[in-house]
Design goal:
Residues 1-10 have a biased composition (Basic and acidic residues). The protein is mostly helical. The protein has 2 helices and no strands. It has a domain at 27-56.
């Protein structure tokens, strides 16, 4: 099935509209929870290293 030039223009317009919506930043709560998760993982890793080094 071949597309007519009008169809291609329509698809191109739709794609440009989707791209022009731009970047939507994450909510602040997502960013804070991500950093909390990073800190929990970091402290768990460092705690495990400390435990292996001194209490084995």
């Amino acid at each position: 099935m071949e597309h007519t030039p009008e169809d291609l223009e329509h698809f191109s317009t739709l794609q440009q509209e989707e791209e022009s919506q731009g970047y939507t930043p994450r909510p602040r709560s997502h960013i804070i929870l991500a950093w909390v998760l990073v800190l929990v993982v970091l402290f768990a890793f460092l705690g495990t290293c400390y435990w292996l080094a001194f209490y084995r």
